[in-house]
Design a protein that fits this description.
260 residues, alpha/beta, seven-stranded mixed beta sheet, three-stranded mixed beta sheet
Length: 260
């Protein structure tokens, strides 16, 4: 079939981005970006796991904006589906996969570091006890499959660590269900002020211009691979020079109101 890809082609493509056995990968993805994939999302996950081997760990976001839209929401750690695409949901339901405890921004993981990454009771999204901080410690690969830098959650880790002035702490409350047991839970979230929006595309261009991103195609999908440490270093330098570097041009004036 024209414009189709199979598991072998995806494996060979991923290896061409320097991904290898034993790596840790955090993937943001769009299955449809490939065109037609023989076997669907399972084929993509199998390809990643083949590249990583038995010593590697595959992780993905499984967010659904829980607790962002009112305190009557409930999140089931074991059963709530991911709204981050079919590849993300396939990883979540993969044999041996584990999901983290943080309801607003949970991740899923498969591999030897799955327990290390998910058995963390972080109160903020990106605090030092969070899966995201652990991914940074591991210098995990971030892989964007058919999506752009707008989807790159790790950028928010630096925003939280810097406590950027255009965000303020708010509580997010709701019900968390684990193993059938429900409990009320409140998390601390660093939320943008009204009228302020992010734009991560200039950051992505800067990262690519610095030579820190492997870019190419698998099927019809544009793939971008980069190390989490390179990303966070680039962000830190950028916001040190300009505290509003990550803010969209049309909301910079609004964001400027919150500068100290």
């Amino acid at each position: 079939m024209d414009n189709s890809v199979n598991q072998t082609e995806i494996v060979n493509g991923l290896k061409g981005f320097d991904l290898k056995s034993g790596d840790v990968i955090f993937v943001h993805s769009s299955l449809s970006s490939f065109g037609y994939v023989e076997g669907g999302a399972k084929t993509v996950v199998k390809a990643f796991l083949e590249v990583l081997g038995s010593e590697g760990t595959l992780t993905a976001p499984i967010f659904r904006n829980y607790f962002h839209n009112g305190s009557d929401q409930a999140w089931d750690r074991n059963n709530s589906p991911s709204f981050m695409g079919r590849i993300s949901e396939t990883i979540r339901t993969w044999p041996g996969a584990r999901s983290s405890h943080h309801a607003p921004h949970p991740i899923t993981a498969v591999g030897p570091l799955a327990e290390d990454l998910t058995e963390r009771y972080n109160e903020t999204d990106f605090g030092p006890d969070s899966p995201f901080s652990r991914l940074l410690e591991l210098n995990a690969w971030i892989v964007l499959v058919g999506v752009d830098y707008t989807s790159c959650t790790m950028i928010h880790l630096v925003e939280e660590r810097a406590e950027v002035p255009y965000r303020r702490w708010v509580p997010l409350s709701g019900t968390v269900i684990e193993n059938g047991v429900a409990a009320r839970k409140t998390y601390h979230f660093l939320k943008r002020y009204p009228g302020v929006s992010n734009d991560f595309l200039p950051l992505g261009k800067r990262l690519e211009d610095e030579g820190s991103v492997n870019v190419g195609m698998i099927g019809k999908s544009v793939i971008r691979c980069f190390r989490s440490q390179d990303l966070c270093d680039c962000i830190s330098r950028s916001i040190e020079d300009d505290p509003l570097y990550l803010i969209s041009s049309n909301t910079r004036e609004e964001a400027r109101k919150y500068l100290p």
